[in-house]
Design brief:
The structure holds two protein chains of two kinds. Chain A is globular, with a radius of gyration of 17 Å. Helix content of chain A is about 25%, strand content about 40%. In chain A, strand 7 and strand 8 form a beta hairpin. Chain A has a single domain (about 10-155), classed as START domain (Alpha-D-Glucose-1,6-Bisphosphate, Chain A, domain 4), CATH 3.30.530.20. Chain A contains four helices and eight strands. By secondary structure, chain A is α+β, with helices and mostly antiparallel strands. Chain B has helices at about 5-15, 20-25, 35-40, 45-55, 75-115; strands spanning about 30-35, 60-65, 70-75. The chains are: A alpha+beta, B mainly alpha. The interface of A and B includes residues 6, 131 and 137 of A.
């Protein structure tokens, strides 16, 4: 399933994979820095209204990362390892501290489109299609939005 | 939530099979009986009927009665739900990337400042 505006997303129906493609008005090296410099990364990764605090950061092949997203005294930690860090790609693992047995393998590709533009392709491989779908549902963030409430109403009403 | 009984997991599990995805694609064009659905395939009506049962259990299709002559129809509401989840996830990613846009714009400004 894809859409034409902004980030394009695809949840593969046969593989436990989520793919996202997004273009940026920046060079691949700038995109790479925004993903590997901890101070820069902390400024964009967290949801709006949440502060990101880096706990550990070693953006080299074989290194590791860890950060906490915090809001109103609630903290959500994430950690993983950098499997491969190169100017054109990052391969890393991703685990939510609240679900320590779960791990996603993320591949990020930085592609030069010329004229100071670049394309970011991300792929998240999780352990099962069920796990992927749970991931899609949770959105890794806090709170219940209208869509969630609507779904729960559908489920509660016996429509699904 | 139990992944086996969780509704959305059932939806995606039902859609994991290529024949069932094809059946859904054809039903998105219009209702059809199991016999009509089975016609293009090199499989029995019974096999298609089993696929329809899996889709029905996941809430993706509706069938009034069990007769093969009764038409099968898509349950659009469930599809909207699955689409909604993915769209919600996409929006979160897009929000994150807009913050990245802003940061990259600042990085561009800094670079121009450096060269000025």
């Amino acid at each position: 399933m894809t859409t034409s505006t902004g980030a394009r997303i695809e949840a593969d129906p046969t593989l436990p994979v989520i793919r996202i493609v997004r273009d940026f008005a920046a060079t691949p090296m700038q995109l790479f820095r925004a993903h590997t410099d901890p101070d820069l990364f902390a400024r964009w990764v967290g949801p709006d209204g949440m502060a990101t605090r880096i706990r550990h950061w070693d953006a080299r092949s074989g290194g590791a990362w860890s950060y906490v997203a915090a809001r109103d005294g609630q903290e959500y930690g994430f950690h993983g390892t950098f499997h491969e860090v190169r100017p054109d790609r990052i391969v890393q693992t991703f685990t939510f501290d609240g679900e320590p047995d779960g791990v996603a393998l993320e591949t990020l590709l930085f592609e030069d489109l010329g004229d100071g533009r670049s394309r970011l392709r991300t792929q998240s491989l999780v352990e099962s299609i069920e796990g992927r779908d749970a991931w899609l549902r949770s959105g890794m963030e806090v709170g219940v939005d209208q869509g969630y409430a609507k779904l729960e109403a559908l489920v509660a009403g016996g429509h699904v | 939530m139990d992944p086996v009984t969780d509704p959305l997991s059932k939806v995606f599990a039902a859609l994991a099979d290529p024949t069932r995805r094809d059946l859904v694609a054809r039903l998105s064009v219009g209702d059809a009986t199991v016999g009509q659905l089975a016609a293009p395939y090199d499989v029995s009506v019974q096999a298609v009927s089993k696929h329809i049962k899996v889709l029905a259990d996941a809430g993706l299709v509706r069938r009034d009665g069990t007769s093969h002559r009764r038409p099968v129809s898509l349950d659009a509401e469930v599809f909207d739900m699955a689409t909604a989840w993915i769209e919600r996830y996409r929006k979160k990613a897009e929000e994150r990337y807009r913050r990245l846009d802003a940061l990259l714009a600042e990085m561009n400004d800094e670079r121009e400042d450096d060269t000025a």
